[in-house]
Hints:
Elements: H1 2-8, H2 20-24, H3 29-64, H4 82-98, H5 101-129, H6 144-158, H7 162-186
Amino acid sequence: MAAVITGMRTYTTYFGDSAAVATAFAGRPWAQALISAGALAGLTSVILVFQLGQPRIFMAMARDGLLPQYFARVHPRFRTPYITTIWTGVAVGGVAMLTDIGSLADLTNIGTLFAFILVCLGVIILRRKDASRRRPFRVPMVPLFPLLGVFFCFVLMLSLPLETWGRFVVWLAIGLCIYFLYSLRHSKLRRGLDAGITEDEPPPLIKT
């Protein structure tokens, strides 16, 4: 895509442009409308995935004790984590209402890239400390591939503004405080206790 739009217009045209593809098709309303529709569909699907995934992460954390059991509640009829879904929606809606989209995008990017770095490091650690663990998929060429993932993600993080790094450090500090002051002492897995059903075992259905 980058090669195509660079061939359509001089590359300097896109400096500081957040909608480079639309700029490349300037003068062709039908193409811009098609691009806008595709972008809207893509953003909607991504937001939907995050809004469905994040509540389930909170629910899994609460089952282990990393968060209060209040967040582990499942709706008796629909079998969904409705408490965390509601609070996630309220939090996301409130932040989106009061924050500009550019700052939110940068903060989301740095958080996602940092999560990818942790995943890459986790692959290396688990491969050594839990070599017999059941794996439906095995990452090839370990530790080379994970280390490359760490490197490229960190390079992308360095391209983000200094202000974003400051916000990221503050959010990380808040998360670590919650973990060390509450989660660490309440984790069932850490104490060798059964945390109950996991995401691999969906909650049982209730017959109506």
